[in-house]
Each structure stands twice: as C-alpha cells, then as structure tokens.
Design goal:
43% strand; 1 helix; rod-shaped; binds 2-acetamido-2-deoxy-beta-D-glucopyranose; 279 residues
C-alpha cells in the first residue's frame, strides 16, 4: 500500500482536492464538509448552464431566480458581455427577460444572469436558434475574359448545411483545376480562375440541411477582351491570345505578364514583343 486510491474513487473526489502527491495519504477526505455554501441561481427552474433550443419568430422568456435566498439579492442580466437594462421591481431575488422575437442572429448568443454582489454566482443559457438555410449573393457578376471570377454565396444555417455549386443545373465538377471553393461558416465561395467565354452561365449555390433546402442563382457574364472589339467573333480567340495573319502566316499575339488588356485598344496596339503584349 502506498496511499493511492483506486482510479474510480479518485475521479469522484471534489474538484480541487484531486491533486495527489506520490505517497501522501488521503485520510483528510473524511473531514471535509459536504454542504455547498454558494447562492444558487436557476433559469426557467434549471440550475445548469445549457443550450436553449428555439426558432426564429418565437418569443423566448428567461426567468432567473435565486434558489432559497437568505437575504434580498440583486440580479444582473447580460446579453453576451453587454448589460441588459432591467426595470425597477425586476431585479431582486428574481428577474425575467424576454427575447421577442428570436431572430437568426441570436443563434449562439449567450444570456447570463448573475448576482450583483458576486459575479461568480451566475448561470447562462446559449440560444440554439434552428432554421432552414438562408442564402444571399449578387445576382449578376460581370467579368472580363482572363480575369478571375468570384461568386460569394453568403450562408446562414443551423444546423450546418451541406453546400454545393451547380453550373446550369449540373453538379460542378471540381476536377477542373481553375475552380477553387472556399468555405467558412458564413461564406461559400467559388473562384473561377482566368475565366473563358464558355464559363458564362448560371451558377447555383445549393444548401441542404435537415431543416430544409435553399438555393441562390448567380448569373456570370464573361465579357470579351476589349482589345478584340471590332474583330469578328470568329477571330476572337480564347486564352488572351489573338491570332494575327501577318507576313508568312498567322501567329499569336498574347498578353504578357499581368498587364491588363483593358488598357489596350485595337487602334493603339503596341508593337509586337513590347509590353504588355508579346508574340
Ligand atoms: C460567490 O459565489 C460563488 C458561487 O456560487 C461561491 O462559491 C462563493 O462563495 C461566493 N462568494 C461570496 C463572497 O459570497
Ligand atoms: C418553475 O417551477 C414552479 C414550481 O415548480 C412553477 O410554478 C413554474 O411555472 C416553473 N417555471 C418555469 C419557467 O418553468
Ligand atoms: C436542466 O437542463 C439540463 C440541460 O439541458 C438537463 O439535462 C436537465 O435534465 C435539466 N434539469 C431539469 C430539472 O429540468
Ligand atoms: C428576497 O428574498 C429575501 C430572503 O428570502 C426576502 O427577505 C426579501 O423580501 C425578498 N425580496 C423580494 C423583493 O422578493
Ligand atoms: C440564366 O438565367 C437568366 C435569368 O434567370 C436567364 O435569362 C438565362 O437564360 C439563363 N441562362 C442559361 C444559360 O440558363
Ligand atoms: C433537400 O434536398 C435533398 C437532397 O437533394 C432532398 O433529399 C430533400 O428531400 C430536400 N428537402 C426538402 C425539404 O426539399
Ligand atoms: C436575385 O436572385 C434571387 C435568388 O436566385 C432571387 O430571389 C431574386 O429575386 C433576384 N433578384 C433580382 C433583383 O433579380
């Protein structure tokens, strides 16, 4: 025997007394008082911190009460870190607040009731506002050929929705290396790098959750390179290059580096090989 308690008993020791030094016997446990002296609070008759399930549009009343007060106790309410102003007569021994109506923005927001004289005596509920996905974004995005297109699908959902992109009703295959998808809790973003004319179309951001589905349609219009303005459509090649029949045959004139083709008009083409174009 070295004085250690078996594992099971150790876990039942009160917090703060479980620090064991090797070889120190634990007989002291027998003499600890068993009663809890702190003043206890309850919200809606429950003394545990907890998530409170609710829905947008509902009225949620929170009733904080001091359990068996031995003296008049003043109460404070906080929404997150902000003090809630309470009317006279709604502060002593018990205090009620009402969230009316609950909105989707209240999801994850904490409401805390505490004793004015002792901030350790407190109880919190966190609203768990459940609703079908809500999406929003631009309807029309216009991008110059060869630029990157960014479609931002702003998302709110609880529970978390499964998000997907479609192009013209077809599931967007991510095998295309020009597509990048970024997802955070409130954004589902599709970036198409170096857009081509063929990228024009209707893109749908789709959210599926156990509470319902939602979609938002983005129309992407890829505008031709203005440098080609005036050229017949058949001679406006993709890829930022222009086939120019000259001398012994057609060669390709391409945008060099990151120079913007917007600055270049048909009438003012720099000589081939000079910036921002190269042969
Ligand atoms: C403050 O409240 C805590 C938790 O209820 C309690 O443990 C502590 O003894 C209280 N302190 C005072 C000074 O009443
Ligand atoms: C709390 O419990 C009391 C008595 O048990 C009851 O009268 C009261 O309606 C309950 N309040 C809430 C908010 O559940
Ligand atoms: C208080 O709330 C907790 C967490 O939601 C729950 O597990 C417990 O049963 C509730 N207690 C009472 C007395 O309703
Ligand atoms: C609060 O509780 C205390 C102790 O029970 C009591 O003396 C006091 O009158 C109560 N005050 C109110 C406003 O209920
Ligand atoms: C995209 O949507 C717009 C507006 O809803 C519609 O006019 C257009 O025909 C659609 N284009 C395609 C390729 O489906
Ligand atoms: C949401 O979409 C999923 C998958 O497409 C489908 O199984 C489900 O029935 C849809 N739910 C609703 C409420 O439309
Ligand atoms: C934008 O798109 C959304 C969803 O696709 C649609 O509900 C809304 O009416 C559109 N707004 C305009 C101005 O076209």
């Amino acid at each position: 025997m070295n004085g250690f308690l078996p594992q099971g008993q150790l876990q039942m020791a009160p917090a703060g007394f479980a620090r064991l030094l090797p070889g120190v016997p634990l007989l002291v446990f027998a003499f600890l008082p068993c009663t809890i002296t702190g003043t206890e609070l309850a919200i809606n008759n429950n003394t545990t911190d907890r998530w409170l399930p609710t829905e947008p549009g509902q009225d949620q009343s929170l009733s904080c009460r001091v359990q068996n007060p031995s003296q008049a106790e003043e109460l404070l309410w906080f929404r997150e870190d902000g003090r809630v102003s309470l009317q006279e007569g709604n502060r002593v021994n018990a205090s009620d607040i009402c969230i009316s109506p609950v909105s989707v923005d209240d999801n994850g927001v904490s409401f805390t009731c505490q004793l004015a004289r002792n901030q350790s005596a407190r109880i919190s509920v966190v609203l768990d506002v459940v609703f079908p996905p809500i999406l929003a974004g631009e309807n029309l995005t216009s991008v110059q050929e060869e630029d990157d297109a960014t479609l931002n699908c702003r998302t709110k959902a609880n529970p978390v929705a499964e998000m997907t992109w479609y192009k013209d009703k077809l599931f967007l295959s991510l095998t295309e290396p020009r597509y990048r998808i970024l997802q955070s809790s409130e954004l589902f973003q599709l970036v198409i790098q170096k857009v081509q004319k063929s990228d024009s179309g209707n893109y749908t951001c789709m959210a599926v959750s156990s509470r319902g589905n939602a979609s938002w349609q983005f129309q992407l219009v890829v505008q031709g390179n203005p440098a080609w303005t005036g050229l017949p459509e058949s001679k406006q090649p993709a890829g930022g290059c222009l086939a120019v029949p000259r001398g012994r045959g057609p060669f390709r004139l391409c945008r060099a580096g990151s120079g913007s083709p917007r600055a270049v008009g048909m009438a003012a083409w720099p000589a081939v090989g000079s910036a921002p174009w190269k042969a």
